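Hello Y.,

Per our agreement to keep a running log of every chain we model this quarter, I'm adding this entry. I've kept the format consistent with earlier entries: sequence first, then predicted structure.
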Amino acid sequence: MNKIDDIYVDRLYPYLAMFRIPYFSSGNEKAFANVFLVIDDELMLIDAGPYSEDKSSKLTYALKQSGFDIKDISRIVYTHSHPDHMGGGLGLDGYKGIRHCIYREAKNKVEKYGEYVSSVKSIAKNIFSELLFLYPEAKDTYFDVVDHFWNPTYGEIGIDEQLDEGDSISTGKLKFKVIFTPGHSPWDITLLEETKSLLFSGDFLLSKSSTMTGGLNGFGSDLISYESSLKKINKYLDQIKCIYPAHGPAITSFSNLTDSLLAIVKGREDKIFNAISTNNCSLMDLMKVVYPSIDSVIVLARCLGIVLTHLEKLENESKIHRIKDSDEVRFCLGR
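Predicted structure for the entry above:
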């Protein structure tokens, strides 16, 4: 793997390259998103990374290091609409030969991309402002991450192809089957390359449990969908050699992957429910139960979203409900 400034370029196979592009930094902490370049009769990107003039130029530079130019790209397939994966599409909208592709139900929500990003950012802040009202330090940290992550709040990305379950995308010799795997977001897709037996999983399958954002009024995460998608994808795992997620390293050992991820989800849910069974709890009380040690701002924001997603699932199952105790929202056993 070659490092160019703060982007990493890795030619995995003659037909596939991976770029790791930073989308968040705080102190010594950096978070990266993976962008995959499929090199075939046609060139296709799986995700476009985050937006900014600087990061878009890094994507262009990474392509040049792989022997290509951005104008050579014929298609971008977005695994989902979050800004660290789709935001870079705004930087490429001047290249008319590129077809932008996403799950069909996302099209009307995300084409006016800046409006979509601005709306989700506002929803997230409103929800966590109430839940963290008595925890100003945690609220300020969460807001800082949200302000950095949910950008840009302007621009449009015209969607040229609406993808659906079972669709096949051909780049020439390679063919990618679209598998609808919601849970991390409402419109997650996974791509199965059938001839090389590779799976591109976006944020749905990571080496550890997927990040959850909270439901965000239908724009965020849903654990029921996530668990269903894990069970669905399991039948494909005996067909593949490697999983390439949108963050972190490739997954090469996955014989018990879905079972272990489901066990992680159940373990967190049990901790949360047991704590609420003993006492009424705030979101921050439950954070300390599930994540007793958090050492970075981005991890704090991720964990807040994960715990809230669990709470919303338990609420939807009528196992718990929330009450307002003075200025604090607390969660207690369902009536």
